[in-house]
Specification:
With about 240 residues, the protein is of the alpha/beta class. Helices cover about 20% and strands about 25% of the residues. The chain starts with 5 loop residues before the first strand and ends in a 6-residue tail after the last strand.
Length: about 240
């Protein structure tokens, strides 16, 4: 499938012609992945650089996004890379505000092999993070998944024991574990066991043209401070 559609972050489900209240993520980031470039896969996404399957496999990674987040765009990139490599991907959600499925399908993501597991708690938020961690651990122990995404609600965090188990499983299975976070004013994110932590942003640089940037704030392998950027087209008619 060609790269003629985009992931959407910031437009409500109702605005996109779907009933509201379904927990579909609001869209402010509508970025076309067709300009990722290269010819190493059917979707034209090249598995190279610091934000790639090859670079992040075997590690625990945390991606933080604020009001101008590019989290879904850059997560979509990793999903495409994993599926192109024949790996299964799972999305563990702790809230009902998730991606808009037709956008990922239009990008070429195989939704049939992208299960979304709700780790919600009927009696409050106290145990949601723990449930999400246990779900992710079970998925990794199966050995069937090359990428497990844990989409945390803003005020949730994984404790050190959970992070340790996830890191060991990622290393053992050479799998990616990606924690998605909303930006917090107090800067309180996951702890010392996270291998790579970065913040994603997007900036419009021209009519229908955007630059998505990942700014690294922690990297236990080579030290913090690196930045990687890519330019993308927004979908026609939206900008």
């Amino acid at each position: 499938m060609g790269q003629s559609a985009a992931i959407a972050e910031g437009q409500s489900a109702k605005q996109r012609g779907k009933p509201s209240g379904h927990g579909l993520r609001k869209a402010t980031d509508l970025i076309d992945l067709r300009n990722l470039g290269g010819a190493e896969s059917s979707t034209g996404v090249v598995d190279q650089g610091r934000w790639s399957r090859k670079a992040l496999s075997g590690y625990l990674t945390e991606l933080v996004g604020g009001p101008t987040s590019a989290n879904l765009t850059m997560t979509g990139r990793l999903i495409l890379l994993a599926q192109n490599a024949g790996e299964f991907v799972a999305w563990v959600a702790t809230h009902r505000d998730v991606f808009f499925p037709p956008d990922l399908a239009a990008l070429g993501v195989d939704l049939a092999t992208l299960p979304v597991i709700w780790a919600d708690e009927p009696h409050g938020n106290g145990r949601i993070a723990g449930r999400a961690s246990r779900v992710a651990e079970r998925l990794l122990r199966s050995g069937a998944f090359g990428l497990v995404i844990i989409d945390l609600a803003k005020n949730l965090t994984l404790n050190a024991a959970a992070q340790g188990r996830l890191l060991r499983l990622a290393e053992h299975n050479d799998a990616q574990v990606l924690i998605l976070r909303r930006k917090r004013e107090d800067g309180n994110y996951s702890g010392s066991l996270v291998t790579v932590r970065a913040e994603s942003t997007r900036k419009q640089i021209g009519p229908g043209r955007f630059r998505c940037t990942i700014m690294n704030t922690k990297d236990k392998r080579e030290g913090p401070g690196w930045t990687t950027s890519e330019e993308f087209d927004g979908p026609p008619g939206m900008y």
